[in-house]
Write a structure and sequence with these properties.
By secondary structure, this protein is an alpha/beta fold. It folds into three domains: about 80 residues, Four Helix Bundle (Hemerythrin (Met), subunit A), CATH 1.20.120.140; about 180 residues, 3-Layer(aba) Sandwich (Rossmann fold), CATH 3.40.50.300; about 120 residues, Signal recognition particle, SRP54 subunit, M-domain (434 Repressor (Amino-terminal Domain), Orthogonal Bundle), CATH 1.10.260. The chain is built from 20 helices and eight strands. Strands 3-2-4-1-5-6-7-8 form an eight-stranded mixed β-sheet, with helices on both faces. Helix 18 crosses helix 19. The longest helix has 27 residues. It is elongated and about 95 Å long. It starts with a helix and ends with a helix. Bound molecules: guanosine-5'-diphosphate and magnesium ion. The site of magnesium ion (MG) has 6 residues, from helix 5. Its main location: membrane. It is a peripheral membrane protein.
């Protein structure tokens, strides 16, 4: 696919900003990639539409084609959508015993995932976990969970023949309270497709158990169908998150995007095999890369951006070395400082600077000052910025008034600029400048 894309992109014009035609051409290929990854059609369509309006008009990084730039934008947007609001992946298990209800289609991996999560909670969080199978549909299902439980050293609720799912859930609750368990997993019966009777059963279990988490387990290899499953379960039972299984297979995991977009619920974990350790917290970056399948292009654009920044740093270093340090340079320095977390953030990063940061703050040398200084520079004309020597009394008055500040403050800024310019010149002679600027960027 990347080769195909490469061909398309070569034909695109090299322009400063992404035109609508550039974006459209690239997004046609992205659409194919999404559908190949089994993202559901309506989700792919909406996603492309959102990216289109975001991408059109954006600047193109030097040395990449507009098409490549679009792929990078798509990738970043994909990560953003998959990550959601950055919900914590940790399961809510305070107020023991906390119930975790596992739901999903038959064969999606509910029972396996239940055991995997139980093992994780036991080993990583030191929790006392109880497993309960509510699967009265398949004769071997209860034994399956009990066997997995024994294998990972986690208790399972004794099997009593002839109980309904609700009765088992009730018994699990009692047992969890009596036995001092932190967490109790309710592993529900699978269904081949959405089925009213079984859905009613899950609702009844939910009402009784009041789960802290209801996790929908979905086979990552199912594409289009994942949306229906997620929609139904979310509407009828209400889910708190999704576990995507079989992500160790060939599937590209487009279901992740579909479900995230349709339900708005976070993907919490991914299953990566049949073994009990084969589960990971969901990582948006990884899954986005896989869905798009254009990792090489994303990496290329990132590299190009780094190169571009390095070139900028070098250009600045050359200017400074020649003693060229005007107000525009000072402004980009100040802005860089703001970006790096301001004075406090910057000093906090250096060892032993904590005290100094505090002293600086007391002396009024803080982020507000950075902002005031930037405002002063903004209030200068282009000419004045390029040549601060022009600044005589009347100009100073105008600039200070424009920024809503005192002339004294402008004078301090000018003095600071002069000191910095002198220092730059000295450093430039010693050839230290390049390193210094690079370290700053
Ligand atoms: P349930 O019917 O939803 O309870 O599904 P099961 O937990 O019984 O799993 C069905 C099959 O899928 C079993 O053979 C599991 O070993 C397998 N399975 C579950 N999760 C994964 C996974 O993440 N990767 C792979 N390769 N197989 C899995
Ligand atoms: Mg099962």
């Amino acid at each position: 696919l990347s080769e195909r894309l490469g061909g398309v992109f070569d034909r695109l014009t090299k322009a400063g900003a992404l035109s609508e035609a550039d974006v459209d051409t690239a997004l046609r290929e992205v659409r194919v990639a999404l559908l190949e990854a089994d993202v559901s059609l309506p989700v792919a369509r909406d996603f492309i539409k959102a990216v289109k309006s975001k991408a059109t008009g954006q600047a193109v990084t030097k040395s990449v084609t507009p098409g490549q730039q679009v792929v990078k934008i798509v990738h970043d947007e994909l990560v953003r959508v998959l990550a959601g609001d950055g919900e914590p992946e940790a399961l809510k298990i305070d107020n023991p015993p906390a119930t975790i209800l596992m739901v999903g289609l038959q064969g999606s991996g509910k029972t396996t995932t239940t055991a995997k999560l139980a093992k994780r909670l036991k080993e990583k969080n030191g929790k006392k976990v109880l497993l309960a199978s509510l699967d009265t549909q398949r004769p071997a299902a209860m034994e399956q969970l009990a066997i997995l439980g024994a294998q990972i050293g986690v208790d399972s609720l004794p099997i009593v023949k002839g109980e309904t799912a609700v009765q088992i859930a009730k018994r699990a609750k009692t047992q969890a309270n009596l036995g001092g368990y932190d967490v109790v997993f309710l592993d529900t019966a699978g269904r081949l497709h959405i089925d009213e009777v079984l859905m009613d059963e899950v609702q009844a279990v939910r009402d009784l158990a009041q789960p802290r988490e209801t996790l929908l387990v979905v086979d990552g290899l199912t594409g289009q169908d994942a949306v229906n499953v997620a929609t139904e379960f979310n509407a009828k039972v209400g889910i708190s998150g999704v576990v995507l299984t079989r992500m160790d297979g060939d599937g590209r995991g487009g279901a992740a995007l579909s479900m995230r977009a349709i339900t708005g619920k976070p993907i919490r974990f991914v299953g990566l095999g049949e073994k009990m350790d084969a589960i990971d917290a969901f990582e948006p970056e990884r899954v986005a890369g896989r869905i798009l399948g254009m990792g090489d292009i994303v990496a290329l654009v990132e590299k190009a951006r780094e190169t571009f920044e390095a070139e900028q740093a070098e250009r600045m270093a050359r200017r400074f070395a020649k003693g060229l340090f005007n107000m525009n340079d000072l402004k980009s320095q100040l802005e860089q400082m703001m970006k790096m977390g301001g004075m406090q953030g910057l000093m906090g990063m250096l060892p032993g600077m904590g005290k100094m940061a505090k002293a600086a703050e007391e002396a009024g040398f803080d982020d507000r000052m950075l902002r005031r200084q930037i405002a002063l520079i903004n209030s200068m004309t282009k000419k004045e910025r390029a040549n601060p020597d022009l600044l005589q009394a009347s100009r100073k008055k105008r600039i200070a008034a424009g920024a809503g500040l005192e002339v004294a403050e402008l004078n301090r800024l000018l003095k600071q600029h002069k000191q910095m310019a002198d220092m730059m010149k000295k450093m430039g002679k010693g050839g230290m400048m390049k390193q210094a600027v690079k370290a700053m960027m």
